[in-house]
Amino acid sequence: MQAQQLADIVDLIPEKESGIKSKNIVFAKQQMIASANYHISKAGNDMLELGGNAVDAAVASALMVTLVEPQSAGIGGGGFVLYYNQRQQLLTSIDGRETAASKAMPDLFLDNHGQPLSYPDAVNNGKSIGTPGLLRALEMLHKKYGKLPWTTLFEPTIILAEKGFPISPRLHELIQKDPFLSKNKTTREYFYQKNGDAKPVGDILKNPQLAQTLKKIAQYGVKSFYEGQVAQDIVSAVRQHPKPGQLNLDDLKNYQAIQRETVCGNYRLWKVCGMAPPSSGGIALLQILGILDQNSFYQLPPMSVSAIHYLSEAGRLAYADRDQYIADPAYTSVPVQQLIDKNYLVQRSRLIQANRSMKKALAGVLSPPLSNIGMDKNSELPSTSHISIVDRQGNAVAITLSVAAAFGSRVMVDGFLLNNEMTDFSFIPIDQGQNVLNQVAGGKRPRSSMSPTMVFDAQGKLTMVIGSAGGPAMINYVAKSLLGVLDWKMDMQQAINLPNIGSRNQETDIETGTLTDETLERLKSMGHTLKIWEMTSGTQGIFIDQNGLWGGVDPRREGVALGR
């Protein structure tokens, strides 16, 4: 497979579109949760109604994702959590990213001839499955900051798994369109009818196996997942796969979530904070905003040709640095502060021409120069879910979670799907004779683009809680929505509704059917090569002002905001 083919995989096999449904802004005075599915929002809102805090709501809603959004995320995958405690003025994050098997080597996704595997061969493969991290992250979050009993948080998902829920139009579409899901016996029996068709919209889907798994974890803690029968079942599924992986029981037993400092920077009047590596989301978002700040982006009319041009060019510069410099900080020194330094971003911003696209940006030169680093090429895929929460005490959680591709590895164990997050490593460990920082290594966490984000005003007051689904493009989705609110004075829903645009240092991405022919032609005349495609984001955000909470959800999914 050629490098460009690898780069294009994200567009070839996304979490498919399922239509756009109009959404209205939702207002609440005290508390709110915004997610990609009614049942997810209800589970979290139920915890808030019981007197729980944002952390309790986050755990309950994240567990529900496993049941009702199996294509996107769940306990077989991982995620990143941003947590803000209003009383303590504490902002922190928890890294629940999956890890590679301890015996994994840089050539994990190379064939016998040293060539990268095709996407189907890589994802439908035991090698693609990493040690799930979500439950350890939720456990750490709850132990440190939760309020309700651990067992209470599991009740909504256990009850619904036993009772069953109607298959939504989006879930049905994704089952129907998936080319690999029906090839696995367990997933075929769960998602399909006996005649081979996807179970229809409205069909009641029950998952008693997941209910039993969650009952064990609720009663005995996550140790029962990482060391008990569930762990054995995970390892057996990986090692007995027709194309086996190397995950072992010690990999699960030894997995730890990591509490990390957030990455923060200024954009005009606001302080914007996000995830540190191994996520690239926080750094890349701050780079885009910092570069646009130098070009007075706020003065450009919404979705004008100039606005699209500058946002795309800033994206090119940020993604060039992302692909070169960001990886698991336990395995390499990531120059975080250099990458978001104002003087550095001033230099980067000067590379943008007002009327001409640079097409392909080079990574910036740091001081001292970091040498012998290759450019990462991976197949990070856009199946993810995001939840934003604010409780009545003003505490907040932004949690983005994922199993990587739609339905992950398509391997189902004990009622949940296992991830294929190892394909977020670079398939190619060496680029033009130089090591790629995001190459595979035993125990390493693959780089991510997950971008849970919080924004604070000039007085330090929390103003926005936001994040998105959407693979590498989720950085651009969050940037677009932030700019819509902060610069163009839109409400949260209007900002999320804006056309998805940007660049991942490839073509200029344009959401299908959103811009006029005249706008497209003007962009082409400026040298933009356009990729017009279904950019299925999953952005959920909450804006906070003196009146209360304003929730917006992505119309491209089945999002719902609930509050009081």
Superfamily (CATH H level) name: Gamma-glutamyltranspeptidase, small (S) subunit
Number of E strands? 24
Q: Kindly state the percentage of residues in helix.
A: 25-40%
Largest sheet: 7 strands, antiparallel
Mean pLDDT: 93
Determine the CATH topology: Glutamine Phosphoribosylpyrophosphate, subunit 1, domain 1
Q: What is the CATH class?
A: Alpha Beta
Low-confidence stretches: 1-14
Tell me the overall shape: globular
Strand order of the largest sheet: 1-23-22-18-17-9-8
Instruction: Calculate the terminal CA-CA distance, rounded to whole Å.
Output: 52 Å
Rg over CA atoms, rounded to whole Å, is: 22 Å
Alpha-beta classification: alpha+beta
Beta fraction:
15-25%
Number of domains: 1
How many H/I helices?
A: 19
**Assembly annotation:** single chain
By CATH, the architecture is named 4-Layer Sandwich
